[in-house]
Amino acid sequence: MYTSESSPALKESYDWCRQLTQKRARNFYFAIRLLPKARRDAMCAVYAFFRQCDDISDAKNVCSRRERLEQWKQIIQGQDPTSFMPGLLALRHAVKKYHISPQPFLDLIDGMFTDLEEIHFQTFDELYTYCYRVASTVGLVCISIFGAPDKPEVYKMAEYHGVAFQLTNILRDINHDALEGRVYIPDEILEKFAITRESILNRTYNEQKMASLIDYMAKLAQSYYDRSEFLPYFIPLPSRVCLRAMTNIYHGILKKIENMGVETLRQKARLSLLQKLIAIAMAYLTTWADFWRENFLSAN
Questions:
Q1: Of the candidates 193, 194, 173, which has an alpha carbon nearest to the alpha carbon of residue 183?
Q2: Largest interatomic CA distance in the chain
Q3: What is the pLDDT of residues 234-286, one digit of tens each?
Q4: Rounded CA gap, 70 and 263, in Å?
Q5: Of the candidates 244, 239, 247, 191, which has an alpha carbon nearest to the alpha carbon of residue 221?
Q6: Given a cut of 50, is residue 1 above it in pLDDT?
Q7: Average pLDDT for residues 182-201, to the nearest whole number?
Q8: Domain chopping of the chain, boundaries
Q9: Which of 236, 2, 220 minimizes the C-alpha distance to 97?
Q10: Alpha-carbon distances of 247 from 3, 8, 164, 244, 255, rounded to whole Å
Q11: Terminal CA-to-CA distance of the chain, rounded, Å?
Q12: Quick one: average pLDDT of 224-230?
């Protein structure tokens, strides 16, 4: 059932999603503020879903986590229409309004199930599948809200974009994840640099080798930014600046990791407020140049 735009319950649900996004995803909210309000609210609704799934996967009780993720899966599949969870009304409204496929949500939940087990990837293909489930799915939902055309090449670039973002996250959080007993870098890559999972978990790695590994992983992440560099041109102008801002912020973090090298294991790579503002300003300038070219220069 489609909830009326003026419903007080719907407004309350969107307000909850917005507050959660502002509190838990500063970089993300920093960028989506550039969207028109309706699309920004939809982004907050889907973020709230993703955040709740992620929080479930990080909880202590494994049995409880499985049950709660299964419940979300049933809700997305429409098998439990009477369930109520925070933000659910807003999510259902956004999904219907922007014709979002349920599959990315289901794939993301599958990725969350992966986090319930010991993380140990043998190959990059296994890591790629994980990145697709927990990050590319987010990109596929976002481009629906942005108003992207229904084209296979757009979906593929959104997939690559999500992989680039997730590889950036993995690089930024190596030390934090190790403290949680997790190593996301696959064995086949670790072996290239004679580094073991145990040495990362115990922080007994050779720093020179670790610096080389970080450089390799940063170049790998960059390759996926490169593969998706034309994605913004398929996004309508009102939403394009938001995508560019998010990309500039995440890519800025990657560049900071490259500059910090092994130091990123001791100090988390972050962008300052000024650097974020510059990233947004550059997104505006680039999108304004697109507008000028698409509406004036192409007509001459």
A1: 173
A2: 64
A3: 999 989 999 999 999 999 999 999 999 999 999 999 999 999 999 999 999 99
A4: 39
A5: 247
A6: no
A7: 97
A8: 1-99, 118-291
A9: 2
A10: 33, 34, 9, 5, 12
A11: 48
A12: 98
Q: How far apart are CA 86 and CA 45, in angstroms?
A: 10
- State how far the alpha carbon of 126 is from the alpha carbons of 34, 123, 255, in Å: 35, 5, 25
Q: Sign of torsion, CA 159 110 130 205?
A: positive
In the chain, DSSP finds a helix count (H) and a strand count (E) of 15, 0
Token pair listed for 46: 């889907």
pLDDT at position 115 over 90: no
Residue type for position 92: R
Q: The CATH number of 118-291 is which of 2.40.37.10, 1.10.600.10, 3.40.50.150, 3.30.230.10?
A: 1.10.600.10
% of residues, the chain, pLDDT over 90: 73
Per-residue tokens: 291: 């507008």
- The pTM of this model reads 0.90
pLDDT at residue 184 in the model: 97
